[in-house]
Prior knowledge:
Order of helices and strands: HEHEEEHEEHEHEHHEHH
CATH class of the domain at 3-41 and 102-213: Alpha Beta
Mean pLDDT: 87
Largest sheet: 5 strands, parallel
Distance between the termini: 21 Å
Helix content: 40-55%
Shape: elongated
Structural class: alpha/beta
Amino acid sequence: MTDAELGTRKGILLVISSPSGAGKTTLAHLLAQRERLEFSVSYTTRTPRTGERDDVDYKFVTEDEFSRMIERNEFAEWAKVHGSRYGTAIHTVNRALEDGKDYLFDVDWQGGAQIRRQWPEESVLVFILPPSMAELERRLRRRATDAPAAIEQRLETATRELEHFAEYDYLVVNDNLETALKELSSIYVAARCARTRRGHYGHALLQEAQAQAQTRGRPASPQ
């Protein structure tokens, strides 16, 4: 029996968060490719960075467009981070759950908290940690996409973001990219196999075994 045949497959909302520069976006894209996960593309008012593509990395919108979406209650979660706003369209989440698909979310801790609050059973939260604050600063400066003042602001914000790591189900230290990716993949597979998501297999097989036992004329063991 497959999930489709049983008609009860529950989709996973896999949320990945981290302080800026810890590598969550890189890891999220690599995980999506490895596990063939559907990536939730967030809306943002931020200006595209070099190499970023609209509707692939983010859906880039104006401040006015974003405000109108808030007024129409179109976001499952949204937050203001480093002066720009980011949000996940609620239809994305609803579509994933209705189709029984697993979706990957690259959001900050505020977005993670909102998704967990609205979908506590479907959400799996993973927080990416840098190996050290010194390494986090080095990565931000090496990225060379922000002015020195902006980098200092990101480092200050990182301290506040780290205060929320205990709200997450899993922690991955991104010291080595391949190791961190393997850990993320293991978390996803384990979540997929959790009793709360695979219990329908057990119930269906038990019913099948009981029916076969009765057909053979032998009473099934009591549950």
